[in-house]
Amino acid sequence: MLKNKDYVPADGKPFIYDYTLEQLQNWVKEQSEPAFRAGQIYDWLYVKRVGSFEEMTNLPKLLREKLAAGFSFVTLTEITKLESKDGTVKFLFGLADNHAIETVIMRHNYGNSVCVTTQVGCRIGCTFCASTLGGLKRNLTAGEIVAQVVKAQQLLDPEGERVSSIVIMGSGEPFENYDATLTFLRQMTHPKGLNIGQRHITVSTSGIVPNMIKFADENTQINLAISIHAPNDALRSKLMPVNRRYPFEEVMDACRYYIEKTGRRITFEYALIGSVNDRPEHAEELAKVLQGMLCHVNLIPVNYVPERDYVRTPRDDIFEFHRILERRNINATIRREQGHDIAAACGQLRAKHMETQAR
User: Fold this and answer.
1) Is 173 within any annotated ligand binding site?
2) Is the pLDDT of residue 1 over 60?
3) Same domain for 299 and 185?
4) Model confidence at 3: pLDDT above 50
5) 247-281, pLDDT tens digit by residue?
C-alpha cells in the first residue's frame, strides 16, 4: 500500500464526498444536530447533486457554515472534453493540486457506463499502456473518485438519463488504493445515494494478489476483472512488470480462490498486441490455463500509443484467436471499440496534457 502517496488537501479539510453516510451521521452527532440532518446532507450530495453547501437550503445556516468550515467539495476543473461520434465523452479533469485525471462516459444500448480513475498516473508499468507514462503521482481520495461519477451524472441529468454502470478501469491500479476504492464502491451502491446495483460495477486489477484475496472475502456482488494479457509467466513479465512481484501462477491461484469463495464468474482482460501475444499458440496456451474455470475472456485490440512500439493485431487474427478459445470451450468476446477517434486509450489524453505542460 502506498501510504506515502495518500493525499491531504492543502487546506487540511477532508472532501465531503470522502465521508460515508455513517461517518456523516457521526459528524452530525458531534455537532449536536438532529440525526436526520445527515440524511439531508447525503441527499443534497447524491440525489440533488449540488456544488456548494450554501445550496443545501433546508439546512440551518449555522450547520451550513459548519459544513463549509469542516469540509471541501472536490474541485474537478474541466480541462478538456472530447465527444466521439459514437457518443463516448472523455474528460480531462484538473485537481486542486494541478494534477490531471481522465474520466469517460460510454453510451450503450443498455445504459450509460462511466469509467473512473483511482490514481494520478500509475506505477504498474504495463508496456502497452499510456497510463504509466510519467509514473505514479499519488492516490486519489475516495471523494475524488466519487466526484467523477457525480460529474458524469450531472452531464446526463438534462437528458433525463442516469449512470447505470461503473467500470473502475481508468488510470491507476485500484487495488493499490484499496481502502479508497472500497469506500467509493460503498458510496456508489448506497440505496440513499446513486444506488447503482453491485452487479453493475466492475473493478479491474493487474493482479495485486493480497488484495484480490481480501476483495473475495468482502462478500460483495461487484464484478472482478483481471488484466492478464499473456498465457504464461515469462511473456506476462515482459508485458507487465507487476508480474515479477506477483507471478502468473499466484495470480491464477487468487482467481481460483475468488471463484470458489464467491461463486462468481471472473473476467480476464487480454489486450491483443500484434505478433507479441496474439498468435494461435498463445490462444491454445491460454485456453489450457483457463480450462474448467468459471470465467470469461474479454479480447481487447490494443490501442495505438505513440510512445509505445506495439501495433494492432490484424482483424482476421483477432477473430482466429477468438475462434480458438471458443473451440476450447472458453467463453470469450471481442470488446467493441468506443471513442477510437478521441484518444480513448487510458492515459492518452493525460499524457498529451503533460507533454504540453512540459513545453
Assistant:
1) yes
2) no
3) yes
4) no
5) 999 999 999 999 999 999 999 999 999 999 999 99
User: Which whole-number Å values give the CA distances from 282 to 88, 111, 132, 297, 324, in the listed order?
Assistant: 32, 34, 25, 13, 10
122 is in an annotated binding site: yes
The cell for 45 is: 450530495
CA distances from 269 to 205, 206, 272, 286, 353 (A): 10, 9, 10, 12, 27
Active-site residue, selected from the candidate residues 250, 307, 346, 355: 346
Q: In this structure, is residue 155 part of a structural domain?
A: yes
What confidence tens digit (pLDDT) does each residue in 26-50 have?
Answer: 999 999 999 999 999 999 999 999 9
295 has binding-site annotation = no
- What percentage of the chain exceeds 90 in pLDDT? 82
What gap in Å lies between CA 53 and CA 348, rounded to an integer? 35
Q: Which three cell numbers stand for residue 343?
A: 484518444
Q: Count the Cβ atoms, other than its own, within 10 Å of residue 135.
A: 10
Indicate if 250 belongs to the active site. no
The single residue of 102, 144, 176, 269 carrying the catalytic annotation is: 102
Q: Strand (E) positions, 229-315?
A: 266-272, 295-301
Rounded CA gap, 352 and 97, in Å? 18
| Maximum separation of any 2 CA atoms in the chain, in Å | 68
Q: What angle do CA 161, 167, 171 make, to 5 degrees?
A: 120
102 is catalytic: yes
Length, in residues, of the chain: 359
Range of the domain at 87: 77-358
End-to-end CA distance of the chain: 33
Q: What is the pLDDT of residue 287?
A: 98
Do 251 and 180 belong together in one domain? yes
Q: Residue 162 half-sphere exposure, CB side, CA atoms within 13 Å?
A: 13
CATH code of the domain covering residue 35? 1.10.150.530
**306, three cell numbers:** 505513440
User: How do residues 156-205 score in pLDDT, each as one tens digit?
Assistant: 999 999 999 999 999 999 999 999 999 999 999 999 999 999 999 999 99
d(CA 180, CA 177) in angstroms, rounded, equals 6
For the chain, what is the total number of helices (H) and then of strands (E)?
A: 11, 12
Q: Does 340 carry a binding-site annotation?
A: no
* Same domain? 33 vs 121: no
